[in-house]
Amino acid sequence: MIDLDPLSDPMSQYGISTPKALPLSECMEGKSALNDCIFTVEDNTLAIAIGGKQLIGFEISAIHRPDREKVLAGLLSNVKDDYDYILIDTPSSLGLLTMNALTAANEVIIPIRCDYNIFEGMAELLRTINDVSKSLNQQLTVNGFLVTHVNTALRSTSVNLREIHTCYGSKVFHTLIPSDGDLSANYAQLATELFG
């Protein structure tokens, strides 16, 4: 798993008290190889490269760098054959880090909140994915939409779900992530949908 979100906190999520590898920013800035930024957790079933707040500096320092959108793709090309799947977690913004993820990925899974902001920013995101697939990464496709923040106690939930299915049809995953739950509660079902 590549954690490209500077604001995420995977250390507490995975019960990591101290980093066991260099921060991902070291690799993104060309100071180290990606293998030096990867460590394993959960009985060696998951390898993770942690971004952290240092990645904010990459967006600033790489602004004039040639091929700045392809930095992550270059790093992953050296290790991708070592893993069954590589998941890239991105920031919610469409900045340089997200562009690197889109350029490196084969497929995109789009989380979509089941609330009054259902389609906020979606048109821009889909337009960006389409642009990247035409200019930087022709393999890039939308795998599906993962509905999150589902609260079955609200009457609006069924209306929102209907709207989502009307817009995106079969691309919407059956797994729903509850508003007060986490992904691990639905992991087995979602893993079956994603990986067969």
Describe this structure in words.
This protein has 196 residues and is α/β, with parallel strands linked by helices. The protein folds into two domains: 1-105, 3-Layer(aba) Sandwich (Rossmann fold); 106-196, Rossmann fold. 35% of the residues lie in helices and 18% in strands. It is built from eight helices and seven strands. It has helices at 10-13, 24-28, 55-61, 71-77, 96-104, 122-135, 156-168, 187-195; strands at residues 2-3, 38-41, 46-49, 88-89, 107-113, 141-150, 172-178. A three-stranded parallel beta sheet has the order 5-6-7, with helices on both faces. A two-stranded parallel sheet has the order 1-4. It has a two-stranded antiparallel ribbon with strand order 2-3. The relative contact order is 0.12. The mean pLDDT is 85.
Features:
alpha/beta, 196 residues, Rossmann fold, 3-stranded parallel β-sheet, two-stranded parallel ribbon, 8 helices, 35% helix, 2 domains
Short characterization:
The protein is an alpha/beta fold.
Compressed to H and E, one letter per element, the order equals EHHEEHHEHEHEHEH
Content of β-strand: 15-25%
Largest sheet, spatial ordering of strands? 5-6-7
What would you call the shape? globular
Give the number of DSSP strands. 7
Assign the CATH topology of the largest domain.
Rossmann fold
Any idea what the CATH architecture of the largest domain is? 3-Layer(aba) Sandwich
Tell me the CATH superfamily of the largest domain. Answer: P-loop containing nucleotide triphosphate hydrolases
Gyration radius, to the nearest Å?
Answer: 17 Å
Question: What's the total helix number?
Answer: 8
